[in-house]
Amino acid sequence: MIDFTAPPAQRLSNALLDHDRVVVAFSGGVDSSVLAHMALQTLGARRVVAVTAESASLASGELDHCRNLAEAWGLRWRSVRTEEMADARYVANGADRCAWCKTALMDQLGPIAQDLGATVVLGVNLDDLGDHRPGQDAAAAVGARFPMVDAALNKSDVRAVARERGLSVWDRPAMPCLSSRIPYGTAVTVDLLSRLDRSEAAVRSLGFDDVRVRHHGDTARIEVPVDALGHAAARAEELVSALTALGYRYVTLDLAGLRSGNLNAALGDLDRSDTTR
Questions:
Q1: Tens of pLDDT along 92-101?
Q2: In sequence order, what are the residues at sequence separation of 6 or more whose Cβ sits closer than 8 angstroms to the Cβ of residue 208?
Q3: Rounded distance, CA 233 to CA 83, Å?
């Protein structure tokens, strides 16, 4: 029984106690890191394994980041190769792209969990429920659980727990999959994902920790937090040079600032009943 008047860390620990063993889908972001670390503290090292999905949509350096965190915590960790790029429904990039990505992930995590007698758990929090995230439904449909939702934790709670526990990721910017930079209806390709990866790495090298480069044909739309817009404008020449060298003809700066998942705003223009995914 979860006492919802308890502090967030205690609520999450109580939610994890509903499971004997867990397989944590571990991306290395603040949500999955808090989930993995709390599972380790609550259930013990022998009852927790963290698994990172390796694919073309994973940004450079993220796999090593996950491995290093696991080693530092004494957390059992492994990586698996997911094959979402072999699924035409994912490549077509319709409104349900994330469902096919999570299906590919669960195809890998499900057998691991079955062998261990464990439950697959994902770092989904209450704030995630308010956005268009079909991947959550796909994962839940095959048995994944969301302990942070069960414990009524929102994003602020999760970051607070990370900070209280001394986790280095407590203020780490979100790093969603690279496919989220591609507008719905534009096919996902390995070459395009690689270009986006290199584009964001180039922008970060100029002093921007939190960035998205959105792909719009021959135009790259850069998003940074509003308080970094002045810095981006001051480095406009370098940003243009870096991204045109990677194949873009035009480079723009979004004056509205960085908005996670903002390409979902276009979903109203799509006829979801006529998508291929």
A1: 999 999 999 9
A2: 224, 228, 231, 232
A3: 39
